[in-house]
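Please, structure for the following, as tokens.
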Amino acid sequence: MTHDTLPRLLARNAEQYSQDIALREKDRGIWNEMTWTDYANTAIACAAAFDVLGVGKEDAVIILGDNRVRLYIAMVATSMLRAYAMPAYPGATLAELQHFVGEAHVVAAVAEDQEQVDKLLDLRQAGNGSPAMIVYDDARGMNDYTASGLRSWDDFIALGQKALADDPALRDRLINAANPKDPAVFMHSSGTTGKPKGIVLSHANMIAGANNAHAGGAFDTGEEVVAYLPMAWVGDYALSVGAAIAHRFTISVPERQETVQRDMREIAPTFYLAAPRTWDNMLTLIQVGIENSTPLKKWIYHFFMDRSVEAEKRKLKGVPPGPLDRLGRMIGEWLVFGPIKDQFGLTRLKNAFTGGEAIGEDTFVFYRGLGIALRQFYGQTETNAFTAVQTADEVQLHTVGRPLPGVEARIADDGEILLRADNVFAGYYNNPDATAEALEDGWLRSGDAGYLEDDGHLVVLGRLSEVVYTKDGERYVPNYVENRLKFSPYIKDAAVIGAGRDQLTAMVCIDFESVGHWAEVKGVPYTSYADLSQRDEVADLLKQAYERVNNVLPEALRLHRFVSLPKEFDPDDGEITRTRKLRRKVVEERYSPVIEALYDGASEVHIKAEVTYETGETGFVERTLPIREV
């Protein structure tokens, strides 16, 4: 058998590593384990059930919910039938799901629980009756549902097992039906400039991406990984399904998103990928814990941590550690670093990555000083997540490392990063115009501006479409400045304004948790997010972030005025995507009175901002916002 598709690789694992643990899932405090044999048998039974019910080539199956083992299995099973597995974010709105139904022939869905089933029934009622078939994982609350086409997971798998028993040849047909160019998964672009575009990644794309990342040292065979990232994000599928099957990872699914930290500690993964904000939040928890400890513990922590961070900074500049650095590292590991890593489940971590946007230097250096070899990577949905990574011995703060083995990169005349590799997708689904813009002579136009250094390292500046000019013709990338503002633990989101204007200004959203804790420590009273965001003491805190950013910007691009918004940017309000990328046009239109006030010399501005609550109902936050000078 040629192992050139995920189903055939899964069958190989079941044959050669039958009793090794492939999947774990925590339920009611207990880790339930599934071997490669169990994984393969369940996926094949799932595919057989879909087959009995008529799911076939080019049909689509929506996968809706938080990370669940059965939802991962359903995606693999769907690919066996040459159909499209379409994962959606658990917080997806009805409009977002209607977009899915409008772009492909959706015949079925696999949902996590009652909440997600309700969404799918609303979707069915609002449209053309699709999806007609809904399989649910968690049966709690489902006893009284009488809608047609509803099936529990257990009943669904039993249907597939009966079909396999009735037709002994069906198993091999399902394993071998798909070919390398058939779809492994149907992802979507982030949709920062419009509706998300469909991105179909084939088995060949998925396997090539996993093999390139493995060859480039991103991960080893047999990694332990905690699957907590959104299933609709390509990074999760590339790791938890693609690389997991190709390189035999053990994937552990936490009980809930709220228990990830505790579950991480129990598993102690060997590979961990997180966005900069997650690393920042963990750092905040560490710092809060230290500040609440005894004076002796605080002294010991700072004695070793401060020296380790300084040694790491010297190391990044090419200065090797001296004997005292190594001694401090050894003692610090015993007294400080080891216990902290144990508290967060990082004791066995061999491969740690951050990606998606730039990470703050202080955060990056802190973790390396802690003994975690944190590295940066670069990738896109169109390239199956991994395109370039830093190697363990060549970490630089300003680069994302070299392109992986099997990946070619060059820079176009306009500064755009061009990529060519077997893991690059074949084009946007049913969108020839967008495909023609993205793919040219076998090269993917990444949409990112950047450059290659003499040593081959890739530097990513930001989205090419966001390169703008001030009134005086100064060129800048707003996202570059915004990311550096977000290096502050007190700023969650930012929108930098300045295109066609004589100076740069910014609107920011505070990080409620970090600023709230700071306010409690400092005795600053507040009643709500809106109240806290406008406090003068908080404004002084934010000014420090602006001043740090201004210190690294050319004088013509320094920030002059800012305003702290009374609410966070929210994907439900359309201001950011589900992956927290700024929808710039929406933000600039919605906050146009604030932007005008930033430039007309006003000292304050009154706004009424719409808010979408968890129930789906909308309301308003009304506030007079002071305009602050940096």
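The radius of gyration is 25 Å. Residues 295-316 form the longest helix (22 residues).
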